[in-house]
Design brief:
By secondary structure, the protein is an alpha/beta fold. It has one domain: NADP-dependent oxidoreductase domain (TIM Barrel), CATH 3.20.20. Helices cover 42% and strands 15% of the residues. The chain contains twelve helices and twelve strands. An eight-stranded parallel beta sheet has the order 4-5-6-7-8-9-10-11. Strands 1-12 form a two-stranded antiparallel ribbon. A two-stranded antiparallel sheet has the order 2-3. A hairpin with a 6-residue loop joins strand 2 and strand 3. Helix 4 runs parallel beside helix 5. The radius of gyration is 19 Å and the shape is globular.
Length: 310
């Protein structure tokens, strides 16, 4: 068989791996089946992952405050009750990992947890210590996903993470960036290293990733985690001053957070979005984004245009 044909077929199958089944079987808008939250497959294994995860930057950095920890436990309880899976954190986020671990212990480490954290240090040796500390703080014998945070010492840390994966000490490995930074370097890593995940900034206004990184992820069979879905809160603060567009009903949205999240996770190459919140009601709203109809390509274009015009 012609080598180019084999390459094209692999790229096509990799792209399909990140497309939810409903995109392939239903005309027009897709819909999560039977009221269940939408999941997508992790391309490297086919493992299903709920499309709405949870970030912990700022929101879980609450130290030993018992009242704040009670609230975060309630937030996690609502997350898992709605079918949540991925919780993303980092040693960079202050006490967030310790708070997550405490809340998970109080909830008896719910089934469905997909633990994702990062290594964030310029020292390869210190990276091993940091990873061990993260495992202790989360209270887990093994983390699901370890990522190199913002490409810091990514060559050294990827060697460490690759060896850990080969030894069964971590299930998946990846690299992250945010705020639209260092996309060319991220693309080179995706092209040349066998990683399972990338994390990058993608939302209805920050769409640079559509040009190169998202198509490349589909081609290479790499799962995509979308961070900063609300631009750290500034985007949702701006759009919520406006009434919901009429087309919101077409995709079963009752608030702006659901519109913004459905735009992200309806992109075929995006596997999971990780909004952060410290409020139970906001968590419930966010998790509703994984249910009901999803926008098709035509509506996605209209959504982006309408939000840009606000």
């Amino acid at each position: 068989m012609d080598r180019s044909c084999v390459s094209s077929r692999r790229a096509f199958l990799a792209a399909l791996a990140v497309v939810p089944l409903s995109f392939l079987t239903l005309p027009g808008n897709s819909r999560a089946e039977d009221g269940q939250p939408l999941v997508k497959s992790i391309p490297s294994t086919g493992e299903p992952l709920p499309v709405i995860g949870m970030g912990t930057w700022i929101t879980f950095n609450v130290g030993d405050d018992p009242v704040a920890r009670d609230v975060r436990t309630d937030v996690l309880r609502a997350f898992f009750a709605a079918g949540g899976g991925m919780i993303d954190s980092s040693p960079m986020y202050g006490t967030a990992e310790a708070v997550v671990g405490s809340c998970l212990a109080r909830l008896d480490r719910p089934k469905g947890l997909f633990s994702a954290t990062k290594v964030w240090t310029s020292s390869t040796a210190e990276g091993l210590e940091q990873i061990a500390a993260s495992e202790r703080l989360w209270g887990l014998p093994r983390l699901d996903l370890l990522q190199v945070h913002n490409l810091v010492n990514w060559k050294g840390h990827l060697e460490t993470l690759s060896a850990m994966k080969a030894d069964g000490k971590v299930r998946y490995i990846g690299v992250t960036t945010s705020h639209g930074r260092r996309h060319p370097e991220l693309a080179r890593i995706m092209e040349t290293h066998p990683i399972d995940f990338v994390q990058l900034t993608y939302n209805i206004e920050d769409r640079e990733a559509e040009a190169r990184l998202l198509p490349l992820a589909a081609e290479r069979g790499i799962a995509v985690i979308a961070n900063r879905p609300f631009q750290g809160g500034s985007l949702i603060d701006r759009v919520k001053r406006h009434p919901l567009p009429g087309w919101a009903r077409e995709i079963d949205c009752t608030d702006w957070s659901q519109i913004l999240l459905k735009f992200i996770v309806s992109h075929p190459a995006v596997t999971c979005a990780i909004p952060a919140t410290s409020q139970v009601d906001h968590m419930v709203e966010n998790m509703a984004s994984a249910r009901g109809a999803m926008p098709d390509a035509a509506l996605r274009r209209r959504m982006a245009a309408d939000v840009a015009a606000l």
